[in-house]
Amino acid sequence: MPIAVDIDVMLARRKMSVGELAERVGITPANLAVLKNGRAKAVRFTTLAALCDVLECQPGDLLRWEPEEATAPPAVRSA
After folding, report:
1. How far is residue 8's CA from residue 28's CA, in Å, rounded to a whole number?
2. What is the largest CA-CA distance in the chain?
3. Which candidate, 22, 3, 1, places its Cα nearest to that of 60?
4. Nearest to 6 by CA among 63, 51, 73
5. How far is CA 42 from CA 1, 6, 34, in A?
6. Residue 56: which of 13, 26, 22, 3 has the closest Cα?
7. pLDDT tens-place string over residues 9-63
8. In whole angstroms, what separates CA 30 from the centre of its chain?
9. H/E element holding 52?
10. pLDDT tens-place string over residues 43-53
11. Letter string b/e over residues 42-79, b meaning 16 or more CB atoms within 10 A of that residue's CB
């Protein structure tokens, strides 16, 4: 997936556990794990805002875009 989630980085910087973050944000530890491990298909803006509030950061500190590895296009033969 081209969106990388850096919640672990912010947790380490804030010296906060996953359980504490989940409790303070108001989501289950399981749902936070899905998000932080990059398995989430979507995130609500309210959840993102709560994460930013608790971690005192910007959305860009938690999410970043990484281009997917592109496969080389097939060779084109000219006649």
Report:
1. 16
2. 65
3. 3
4. 63
5. 12, 15, 10
6. 13
7. 999 999 999 999 999 999 999 999 999 999 999 999 999 999 999 999 999 999 9
8. 14
9. helix 45-55
10. 999 999 999 99
11. ebeeebeebbbebbebeeebbbeeeeeeeeeeeeeeee
